[in-house]
Specification:
single chain, alpha+beta, Alpha-Beta Plaits, Chromosomal Replication Initiator Protein Dnaa, Chain: A, 2 domains, five-stranded mixed sheet, 15 helices, 9% strand
Amino acid sequence: MPTLARIDQVELLQHVIVKAVPGQRLFEDDTDRDIFLRMLEPLLARTETQCLAWVLLPDHFHLLLRPTRQRLTTLMLPLLVGYARGFNKRHGRRGRLFRGRYKSVACEDNTVLKELVRYLHLHPLRSGEVAKYKDLESHPWCGHGAIIGSSVLGWQSVGEVLKSFGTTKVRCLLAYRRFMKAGVGQGERRELAGGGKLRVRRLGVEAHPTRCDGRVLGTSAFVQELEEAQEWSRAQVRGRAANLFAPKRAVVSVSEVVEKVAAALGLSPEQVRVPSRLPEVRMARSVVCYLAYIRNGHPGKVVAAELGVAHSTICAGALAGEALLSNDYRLYRLRR
């Protein structure tokens, strides 16, 4: 049976699992683990990927990642290739280090985010790496210490995790600690290491899921949304030449395009119309350029006037917008 392609989209929460070949360890000592983290940190910054939780174990590791600008493979490929080469050189070995390709499970934020953070950060306790729950606070090879403040990791997205536990920092930390302690006796929760109908039911996410996918952990609606996004990303897209000679060139007004893009990205139309350095606003403005200028055939000077930019920048914005639409599953409905 052929292996299915990964679901790799920008802004999609992904649980990544990488294992060593049987009988081999990924990390022979603390030096190996330290080198791995030193390789991970610049790659997270370069690819603008958020790391919400992580744990390094002797023969495998888990990462909870959310790519925000580029697809996940742009981080994982150099990370795994670079680490394997360095590991083999340090330990005088040859051959494969990892067991096949890395596994990534697309996860629905609002249903399984907290469960996954707890699952990853309790791994050292379940595996015997640490003897007691309290020892997790000083354990250097998982992200629990950074969240509670006993260690500082500038590359770990601590705020993204804590905001799912409350509104103020003190309440968030208290809720997080209670949540972690409540899971100490749960044991190995294999349903969190993959997707599909059985895992969704065991987690209590959905009692009777109607749509499921082994690569996805979430509700039926989430699975359907990802399926539609995958089909849309593979579909052939008409370019400006086809629209120029269509009977109705301007299907949607520029202002309506701005409103639709703003709603898809959780912004206000006013934010999109004003130039800004914020990544979300810049993304929205590029997408507006593509949808209004290329897809709906509006004159460049009309789009430029709506966004308050020079006419000459619209083409560059449209090119950037087309690339963003191909990678961000949140925007797939706008391209129809």
